[in-house]
Amino acid sequence: MAQVNPTVGDLEGNSRLVADYARRAAEAGAHLVVFPEMVITGYPVEDLALRNSFVSASVKATHDLAERLAAEGLGDLPVMVGFLNRREGLGARFGQPAGAPQNSTALLHNGRVQLTSAKYHLPNYGVFDEFRNFVQGDTLPVVRLHGVDIAFAICEDLWQEGGPVKAVREAQAGMLITLNGSPYERDKDNVRLELCQRRAREIGAAVGYVNMSGAEDELIFEGDSLIVDADGELVARAPQFEDALLITDLRLPEAVQVSPPAAPVDGIRIVRHTISSRPVAPYEPVEPVLTPRPDPTDDIGEVYHALVTGLRDYVTKNGFTSTMVALSGGIDSALTATIATDAVGPENVHCVLLPSKYSSEHSVADAEELVKRQGVHGRTIPIEPIVEAFSGAITLDGLAAENLQARVRGTTVMALSNQEGHLVLATGNKSELATGYSTLYGDSVGGYAPIKDCWKTVVWDLARWRNAEAERRGEVPPIPEHSITKAPSAELRPGQFDTDSLPDYRLLDSLLDAYIGTDKGYLELTIAGFDPELVKRVIRLVDGAEYKRRQYPPGPKISSRNLSRDRRVPITNRWTP
Amino acid sequence: MAQVNPTVGDLEGNSRLVADYARRAAEAGAHLVVFPEMVITGYPVEDLALRNSFVSASVKATHDLAERLAAEGLGDLPVMVGFLNRREGLGARFGQPAGAPQNSTALLHNGRVQLTSAKYHLPNYGVFDEFRNFVQGDTLPVVRLHGVDIAFAICEDLWQEGGPVKAVREAQAGMLITLNGSPYERDKDNVRLELCQRRAREIGAAVGYVNMSGAEDELIFEGDSLIVDADGELVARAPQFEDALLITDLRLPEAVQVSPPAAPVDGIRIVRHTISSRPVAPYEPVEPVLTPRPDPTDDIGEVYHALVTGLRDYVTKNGFTSTMVALSGGIDSALTATIATDAVGPENVHCVLLPSKYSSEHSVADAEELVKRQGVHGRTIPIEPIVEAFSGAITLDGLAAENLQARVRGTTVMALSNQEGHLVLATGNKSELATGYSTLYGDSVGGYAPIKDCWKTVVWDLARWRNAEAERRGEVPPIPEHSITKAPSAELRPGQFDTDSLPDYRLLDSLLDAYIGTDKGYLELTIAGFDPELVKRVIRLVDGAEYKRRQYPPGPKISSRNLSRDRRVPITNRWTP
């Protein structure tokens, strides 16, 4: 199982990645190598699926790859990949995506695409829009390899009852392997393993789960590829958030002769393909890899690794090498810089301190201390002369004067980014995004927002975790303790604290999580014990901040509702529950 | 037919709107009044449909409205509305939107909801995501009113063969009325009329088409409600882009006794409801309203009206009364200000001239001339002192120095907007958005972008049309001629012209339209005669500008591909065709 990290649209690079891992698998003596969902195109492709020239390019790249593998002496090794295909022979019709694209598998062997099959269950919720982009499949491929029958399916097909899973049982395959592009979510925990175990017992066959690693736009793929035997026992497991080639020897039952079912099972036709019927000669199996899972109570550590993965891939896949962060001395920018340091190295993190006349001494000191501890680039640019130049041209007070300072900072980091080529990171957290507690074109500028899906309370947890982790490793904690412990303040006017405009973050985050995370309405929230006036106020803040949220840079998704795509309502919406 | 303009989420306001028009219809002696699709909730509701409390609120508002109509003495008048309903009794299952919401009709009569029925054909392309948000219906309501059978369906159900349309023929109804929220598109022309005519002949019955007016977020609803008789002859037609109550008397055939079909027709069950079987006594019919369509060759005038409608409703539905535009003296900002003046009145348009040291004298003069001609508010704020303050703090050259000027302007108008409460309008056109020829957080700031779906060549056409229209009316042309005729320049460095970085706009727009409008790839574009090097360059520009486009403010959609939602690809995408 090749747990790899393709890039959307980089057909040449992704094909090279497959060829490299196929060679490594062949060298290790593998009889079969399986790659993740849509590895040839990268995943998710979104509306690129509707572009005819893109589908053609994917089909061509897949055929070319089959030839290339053979030309490189790898034609004997069956290679199963995911790619973007089209359903031929379908006329245009209502409800069918233009060009009939399909999320497919392809078996590459002996220099040819031997077999293709498309995903049957198309997810259409949360970040997924697969009904919009794909035509569903209707086959289950079963490949006889060395006298063993192996069935293949794609991602959601394993999660749903019926369809391919039912057809696997009917086909009496000895193993089911699924190709996945399954995004990380904080509360998923061991849910993939438990699913594979349940399915293995249901179908009486081993189950292999190949997942993608890396990140693409807002999605993080956590890897964690695994194999369970027919009893549901875990046999092999790859690490999280890393590329891996998981080499495993399995003892699988000899294929039985099954009379083909008269009709499709649950809409699924079983398609058989034989590579070889002869069992392999006995040999000494390799020791299976069983990467230990981190302590399940270390949920915050897992989130931290996910955020580092998301940032690293967004920077590199967009062709940047370095990042820029405006440091305020507060916890949000401190954590953002720390994640950047862990993702791209301190030499690629450029911090800017932009003090105003309202910045406290401790803010500057805390920011400087962070620069020193992490060894990142740091410079200080007082914004007062620029703010004064604006004040000479226009008369502002109140919120407008506060926001001006944030916008002068935004303009300054964007100018430096333009001049020097760094990707600017926005430092807003999810509590701010939810309530609109940020300045449009001010602190919200940038190309990526690493902590936008983290509640403020989670930001503190992450900072404490990272410092504790450093201590465990015998290193200096990267984040100055004072940035974690002090009361949060935007410092846009004298003596300002977040709690002047927002409730305490423990209370706020629990309310926001109930409203946004579980979509409870006013009535349910008050029944749950929240103060009715506070509920009204927070709902008004959240629903009024839709425009700001849309303008915010993308960031890594770690929850099932991340305020970007998952909860989009018209800006002109006048409803509050 | 009540061609009205509801607001998404404003259940109370929308209910009041229905009650007002129902009263007017009753006073005019109507036997039936029909409202547009989802009039109770507004349309489109997007992911609000997935919120249980919102669905409940819509259902309650609809029942309350039935009671209210009766309480106000309007219980006798059958009122057909569109609303958000839920399909009861469906457990959660894969592929089904959470809570089983439905895009439904409701017949309000005698103080009760007598009948509901849901949309069958759910569009899932372009701006529509209805598979994501709704469960499809399976009934066709046929209402016997004064001895005449009238069937009802929703929007897309009229456009598609089979399903409801087929069931109408089976039911032998005397008329089919559809409730619509059908967005404006530049090339739709008379396509709605032609569709109604074709369907009328197919089903052998009159067809009524009730459309929404106004705008919601990026969509504009053009009205143009109409009725054709069973021969397909146009009987009545409401105006475009305006609210209207279209009162029409029709001679309809007496209902025939049809034995109910044994099985559903095309998945559709016919549901009959009788209000009254007795024909009305003969009376003198009113003269039907037949609003003349504007000259079909005056396509540009229609676009102009659509843009004015879009801007007006976005401003008012978001709770603003006034707008702010940064005037450069160029054509884009001149047209934007003119549309704003027509939409919200010159007293609500605040123009800011922000000259830099590179601004030419004619730019300032042209901008001042526009302020004078239109009677809008105008003020001049030279940005040089602010740019110098930045230059004192950071060293910039080249593109970074150019972008700084745009960002100083952006910060200035946002500060004034914050201080004074105007909605800032971004002035970018579609050619700029497509190629990324704009500054993130500079000229792209604002809450709405009125010409973002207009190619530069269309911007010129619109400006010329508006000036000619003024002359036709004997008024002063609002746009200074020189703003239309001069060579376009961003004036961010001495002697800069758009043609330094971009090809001539006639050529550029035709290439962009072929690439974006029809999704042709490199090969097809070169075969179509475009220079291969230019194609490569423009494709690189377009695909590289995805991030800027996502950060751009929303704007009115006038084409089938408006660069906002219709063509979304991952930012990390590395593919160019």
From TrEMBL, chains A, B:
Its EC number is 6.3.5.1. Pathway: Cofactor biosynthesis; NAD(+) biosynthesis; NAD(+) from deamido-NAD(+) (L-Gln route): step 1/1. Residues 1-252 form the CN hydrolase domain. It comes from the Bacteria. Deamido-NAD(+) binds at N403, E432, K548. InterPro entries: C-N_Hydrolase, C-N_Hydrolase_sf, Gln-dep_NAD_synthase, NAD/GMP_synthase, NAD_synthase, Nitrilase/CN_hydratase_CS, Rossmann-like_a/b/a_fold. One of its GO terms (cellular component) is cytoplasm. GO terms for biological process: NAD+ biosynthetic process. The keyword Glycosyltransferase does not apply. PROSITE patterns: CN_HYDROLASE (PS50263), NITRIL_CHT_1 (PS00920). Keywords: ATP-binding, Ligase, NAD, Nucleotide-binding. Residues 551-577 are annotated as: Disordered. One of its GO terms (molecular function) is ATP binding. L-glutamine binds at Y125, S182, K188. The active site is at E37 (proton acceptor), E37 (proton acceptor), K119 (for glutaminase activity), C155 (nucleophile). Catalyzes the ATP-dependent amidation of deamido-NAD to form NAD. Uses L-glutamine as a nitrogen source. HAMAP family: NadE_glutamine_dep. In the C-terminal section; belongs to the NAD synthetase family. Belongs to the NAD synthetase family. This is Glutamine-dependent NAD(+) synthetase. The gene is nadE.
